[in-house]
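pls design
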């Protein structure tokens, strides 16, 4: 689909620039559609899934690696709020920082990764 093709193109552009990409899908259904697609397989080995059913230790590991140069993290919106993604990778910082791709339009502005309170 053009939708998955566009997401994959954006991710590949970012990783070639030595940036990290964190991609949020609305729900597990859409995430699984993407991860079962040929487009997901084109992303290579530098990708991790951040899922609710992971152990606490595995979640912490994926989160800690999310902002490393050329790393791709695929997740659902549940991790978009309250999860602290931060980069200690100088290459990522030098090349523009980590990049968040929200693959859906938020109906409620308080649920997306870019939302703020106050």
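designed seq:
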């Amino acid at each position: 689909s053009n939708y998955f093709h566009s997401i994959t193109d954006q991710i590949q552009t970012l990783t070639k620039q030595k940036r990290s990409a964190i991609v949020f899908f609305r729900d597990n259904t859409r995430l699984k559609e993407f991860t079962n697609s040929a487009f997901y397989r084109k992303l290579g080995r530098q990708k991790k899934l951040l899922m609710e059913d992971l152990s606490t230790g595995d979640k912490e590991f994926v989160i800690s690696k999310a902002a490393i140069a050329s790393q791709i993290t695929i997740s659902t919106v549940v991790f978009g709020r309250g999860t602290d993604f931060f980069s200690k990778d100088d290459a990522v910082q030098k090349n523009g920082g980590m990049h968040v791709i929200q693959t859906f339009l938020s109906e409620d502005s308080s649920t997306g990764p870019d939302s703020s309170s106050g």
